[in-house]
UniProtKB/TrEMBL annotation:
Protein's name according to its UniProt entry: Serine aminopeptidase S33 domain-containing protein
Residue ranges of the TM segments: 200-222, 234-252, 264-283, 290-311, 317-338, 350-369
This protein's UniProt keywords: Membrane, Transmembrane, Transmembrane helix
Organism lineage: Bacteria, Pseudomonadati, Myxococcota, Polyangia, Polyangiales
Superkingdom of the source species: Bacteria
Keyword field contains Membrane: yes
Amino acid sequence: MVVVAVAWLLLRSLLAALGGGLGESVVIERDGHTTRGLLFRAKAPARTLVVAAHGGLATKESLLSLCWEVRARGADCVVVDVLGHGTSSALPPHDPVGAMRRALRVDRGLGAYDDVRFVGHSMGAYLGAGAAFPCGASIAIGNPVPCGESRIVWGSVHRSLGLSDRFYVLSHVLEPWTPSVVETAVDRLLPGTHSSGGAITIRIALSWASFGAMMLLGLLGARELRRRPGPRGLHVFASVTLLWLALSLGSYRTLWFLLPTQGADVAVVAGIVSVTLMIAWVARLVGARVPISGTIIACIVAESAAMVLWLTNHVPLIGNLLILLPLLTLPLCVVVAMWERVTRSARSDVVESAAFTSALLALFVALLLPT
């Protein structure tokens, strides 16, 4: 475990040395709503500020690679959590789109910049490009906007894999971490500047590698906790907590924000876990014993919850992309099932495995749901 922890520290240090810094936390109050973001700037502010906004099921951390590249080219950059996401205020009940657009104008609280530009991914593009910011100063990633095709950048990972455009959703999800998309977007946003080239790819690779190292450290710790003698319920809770904290630290200011902050997150997690445990207890009463049964129950409940949330939550500003909630839950079920198997002890049963799997899946579902 010590070796993995050292590897993580080295990866994060290398990332910082190559321009992948942590940024400066900023808080902007506007119209009674709080918008939080990460600001990247030199000691003396640059002439140009770029405001970046993420997609509908993401957080500000998903666009850090873009801000790192903007900073490498000499401009300042602030990436924000739009309302209802990450650490910003919840969505207001009235005029949510208008409120979200007004909240994007964080530049007005960050000093007197001569030149303010905008880049947004998916929902963020819809909110900002040609709306909160003029088309001439905006770039949209992965979303049509009323600014002309020259102001829009599309991912093409699916084509590189030989897939048809029906599989564009794969490219769409990966756009924030596709080096060619990041480079093209910043080229168009800051014409005349020089790309850092391979450094973009290296920074993205280091972000994922550091996350992987911390994930491995969390899994090793969770396995140790689950295999200790004593109350299994307590050990499951502790192992889930430890693993999630490791995932949160691994993705901290690199890939995602994984700490629940909205009241709805608690309701989603409690609902999925409680339903899963009730079914698992009944399954044990009727004779189910093998741990894989609990994992299957947890996956079915989590996927069903994701489907219900997709069907019952209408968020017009992200269109049909809320279907990504159940679509992404499917591969997450596979990943979490693998984590459960790796950390499982010889004493595990259907209820313990159901508790471990459902808690992790519920957290993912809660954090993917816009609130």
